[in-house]
Amino acid sequence: MIGYVSPSTGRRVRAVLFDTMGTVVDWRSGISTAVGAFADAHAITLDPDEFADAWRSYYQPSMERVRSGQRPFAALDTLNRENLDAALRSHGIDPGAFTEAELESLTRAWYVLPPWPDSVNGILQIKPDFIVGPLSNGSTAQLVHMAKAGGLAWDVILGADVSRAYKPTPHAYRAPAAILGLDPGEVMLAAAHNYDLEGARRSGLATAFIARPTEHGPGQQQDLAASADWDLAATSIIDLAGRLR
Amino acid sequence: MIGYVSPSTGRRVRAVLFDTMGTVVDWRSGISTAVGAFADAHAITLDPDEFADAWRSYYQPSMERVRSGQRPFAALDTLNRENLDAALRSHGIDPGAFTEAELESLTRAWYVLPPWPDSVNGILQIKPDFIVGPLSNGSTAQLVHMAKAGGLAWDVILGADVSRAYKPTPHAYRAPAAILGLDPGEVMLAAAHNYDLEGARRSGLATAFIARPTEHGPGQQQDLAASADWDLAATSIIDLAGRLR
What we know:
Two copies of one chain form a homodimer.
Chain A: E1 15-18, H1 27-41, H2 48-57, H3 59-67, H4 76-90, H5 100-107, H6 119-126, E2 131-134, H7 140-150, H8 160-163, H9 170-179, E3 187-191, H10 194-202, E4 206-210, E5 232-234, H11 237-243
Parallel strand pairs in A: 1-2, 1-3, 3-4, 4-5
Helix pairs in contact in A: 1-2, 2-4, 6-11
């Protein structure tokens, strides 16, 4: 059998799908830059990196309300917009001081997050031999704009609004595989987050860890290394391309 | 306002989505080549072009059974496979003479249809200014494989299995627009078939006709020219790229 065969699934991998926020793009510097420009424009004093972290801190709890059934599926665009209000309030800033267009424009910073330096070329190196795409909690519209802005040459983009499920819910991993006509074991998730790889493995996917030790800034504590025997562990997407050969 | 504004919708077009079978790829020569190889391998005497037309003749009636509610949604892959049995029988050939793997392999010819000579470069010329993708009755898996095989640089691929509707049902046109975060009037359908453009216009989309006068072979009678005042009418996708500037 040619190509890459996953030791854990025993199947030849046909598609390599990537967690995106943190794994492919550097959400923290992208959001921090946008927050800094917003603060300057409105003469607000704040630390853009710290505010980016605060905004991001509502990300998992807001998705958890969907996963747990407390609210019906809402796309990440909606959650990011709601979470901006919460982050502003947590800094003593009234969201009502801004127009909806201003807040919406700042939220759109999540559409144009910059790729890590190895992402564009790493994806191009994997693409000749595998279907490549995101497997993200982001929306399809968000991921399409991000790909065009950053030059990510995905073959296919199926956002969480297509599966209407957030990782690590099993359907979020299995629906994209099914739409591609593949068994879960023929799909590899590449991600910088061990909890995401745990979810993928539980759902039957092959797994690859990509280290992103500065995703959360210089003091990052979590996900510095693989926490389990994932099929592959790489230091970048270019490194992953080499390991898949 | 910069960019292309549709006279019929009054909106700036953000995405140009293409009918695929016939408009972007030459299904007839692709299927004919595969049928010819199949006939040779099994020592069957038939006219590959004529058989391709016969196979294709079951295409609309099989989708119509889904559109009319006579059967639940089934992906085009399933319909193409069923229609192969019908085409073989109509030629006095028993499908039972072949293994399921052989018939499935022949049906997969629909996954690797060759692009028309202008398609790859035409799409590349439109891509810097618009989101580009198929808006086809094909499945996502089919369209992903076709794009990789033919070098079609789509930004996004949402097959009919995502909307679970076949054109010209309005939902088939409106669902991809909604997933892209766009109003229908911000999406243009480019197609070689006037009935498809009629469906798109009824659903609120902008429209562009692309002439493919030999899609059905040298004796083609239908769709030789635009039948209505579509926003644009072009002789190729490269010509369309110029008209969108």
